[in-house]
Design brief:
The complex is a heterodimer of chains A (about 300) and B (about 550). Chain A has about 300 residues and is mainly alpha-helical. Chain A has 13 helices and no strands. In chain A, α10 (about 215-255) runs parallel beside α11. Chain A is flat, with a radius of gyration of 24 Å. The N and C termini of chain A lie close together (about 10 Å). In chain B, α3 packs across α4 (about 130-140). Chain B is built from 21 helices and 20 strands. Chain B is of the alpha/beta class and about 550 residues long. In chain B, the strands form four sheets. A six-stranded mixed sheet of chain B has the order 6-7-8-3-9-10, with helices on both faces. Chain B has a domain at about 300-540: P-loop containing nucleotide triphosphate hydrolases (Rossmann fold), CATH 3.40.50.300. Helices cover about 35% and strands about 25% of the residues of chain B. The interface between A and B is medium-sized, with 22 and 30 residues.
Chain lengths: ~300, ~550
Amino acid sequence: MPYALRRTGQAALVVVATFVLAFLLLHALPGDAIVARYASPELGLTEAQLDQLRLVYGTDQPVWVQLWQSAAGFLSGDLGTSLQNGAEVESLLAAALPATVTLASLGFLVAVLLATGVAVAATFSSAEWLRRAFRSLPPLLVSVPVFWLGIVLLQVFSFQLGLIPVINANPVEALVLPVLTIAVPIAAPLAQVLIRSIDDTVAEPFIAVARARGAGPRWLLSKEVARNSLLPTLTIAGVLFGELIAGAVVTETVFARTGLGRLTVDAVATRDTPVLQAIVVISAVGFVAINLAVDLVAPAIDPRLRKAVHA
Amino acid sequence: MSTLLTIDDLAISYRARGERHTAVHGVNLELQRGEVLALVGESGSGKTTIGHSIIGLLAAGGRIERGSIGLQLAGGDLDLAKLPARALQQLRGARIALVPQDPGTSLNPVQTIGASVAAPLRIHRWGTKEAIRRRVLDLLERVGLDDPERRARQYPHELSGGMRQRALIAAAVALEPDLIIADEPTSALDVTVQRRILDLLDDLRAELGSSVLLITHDLAVAAERSDSIAVLRGGRLEEVGETRSVLLDPQREYTATLLADAPALTDAAPRPERLAVEPFVMVEGLVHEYGKGTDAFRAVDEVGLGIARGTTHALVGESGSGKTTIGRALAGFHTPAAGSIRIGELDVLAERGSRRLRHAVQLVSQNPYASLDPRRSIGQTVGEPLLNLPLAHGGVRDRRVLAERVATALEQVALPAEVAGRLPRELSGGQRQRVAIARALIIEPQTVVLDEAVSALDVTVQSQILDLLERLQRDLGLTYLFITHDLAVVRRIADSVTVLRHGRAVKTGTTQQVLSSPQHEYTRALLDAVPSPDWLRDARRSRPTQHGQLEVA
């Protein structure tokens, strides 16, 4: 299937471009990690000793040599060492990734369920006031900042209602509020798109034809509307994956969880370029993979796309 | 014979911007078992609203105000206007079925044809999965689709418009309904396909003993296919009765006007032959291909034609015959693979994209709504070409001059000057088409390509626009290339004709030559497909004065 091959090639190109761009940008930052870590007056290191350190970490070489070495390292699975504590970047990621993947995938799942529920209620409720109420929900939630939502949830559910302990929470309890915090800002735009695309589908003549065949709301929703409304929503869902990564940074900070988000914050604060480089590339791979999957799944949902695929 | 449907004093209203408007004002109708009742009228006459109220599909905000819709079934009489939603839902698709207007959008694009046809059977729990599968294949075969197994697996976009309409008919008759509501079932189809689809509906009606409520704007279709006819106007019943007696002896002036305006039913006197020795527009050996290499599809294949100055040449053919491609090539919108096009002294292909070409030829396209920018006022739209042209080529920058030119252009197409301040959506379809013509004429072209310019309009409006085009041609000496699928319109407006099929010109000549003694089998097929019952045409021919009397300004 040449279409799948072509799209996969494009995806790989995006990852490579991201790698190079991130490397160059990080390199262009004024000062380096050596200065950030060792140049503080208390350590009292001389300029010559700093140069020695640069030699050890390889930061004295020309940028293209460093880029090449870094790329070769990534390809062989060696992501380099943290400038901050000398730990291997792989092990840092291995420690942070599972928590974030759990948080993000649960958050995404909850977001999809929330969005679907709100969209269906907003379009198929029998009472008009109910439809209106659900319709106004997503625009409201879209404008809520993640950090604020996290703090409010924490305040209400943990401190005031005492439903979820802040200290000594079991793993499940510890996940509830962060997952909600990360899910709502994704669910809201998702629901907006879904409502819009259900509206568009319902206005199509074939829906009137289905009703003329005696179809009730349940048949209309499951057999006629669902699949037609899915495609635009799926595309947006792929794009919103980026929000998930950004959301993880804020959520993990607010709820003091370990994970990729916290690792990012720390790495930025200490200008730990190898760690940042690895995080950017990992995020890009995730983002590109999700969107590639969306593109490859689309023809399965809409037969009209299959022709273009074969052409 | 027994009555199936009795509509008594039916009134329907719609809510728009907080106000209720009455769309149907107390209509009485009766439909006998096994017969066809045609509802005819212009857009806005309420014919579709009545049809939709019977099947319970009134658009949001629509409500039956009073009256009853009685359905006399074997199991007893029902009043559809008062039936609870649940009960109505059980009748839909089972006892009352719908054949929709536009087969292009009436099938779920992500469902196979088989699944669409199976839908009514599954909704009404007709039988086991296997039984339904077999029934679907039988139905597809019955409506004349070849290789039903394969068709059932295909998706709507893989089928032609006529095949899609057949599939929709299969779904409609799946449960052998007592009443079939056919809402403009063929207005989106070519004439030859239209005839076959109407024949199929007729056959099925006879076979199942169903009644058909045929909603159409086409009086000729109604004349040919219905037992009785109801003429509607502005939500009121103008006239109702047996089709022959209504059409042969219309009691209401409005019915007579509709008849006079229906091009298929009028034997308009052929235009006087005005063939100049030298053609003004010359198209020679035109070839246009879509796609590349071995996949290339030849949409236009070696077509040549000549149009004398100040005359109208019609391009006719079914969809896909290449007529629009030729029109667009003449207007300089794409470069053909081979051939030459001249307008007067101008080589169109060499001048492609030049300002000079815009004075030589303008294009008016089919859908006047889609071709007008919804956010610009009519005045802005009509004046735009003058702003785009350089001053040296007749462009205008001065506001006052521009306003005057716009007013003149609107006057030419018989629109009041104050229309300039309005938006497209505030105008009727006919007015919009006039605006599109005014926009084409404002830079004073010599030639106008009219691509299905009257096809989307009601007959009465269509007749007015055709009159307007003829007047403009006389006054301004315009040369028209008139693209249409409607041979009846050709007879009325064209001096000469080219009949196209699969991108080839099968016949070229004067309208008289081509239409009166059709030599080519395809031209004959096209002519035969125009619905126009002999009894009506003969009757009208014997009373030629009536047409003149009833012609409206």
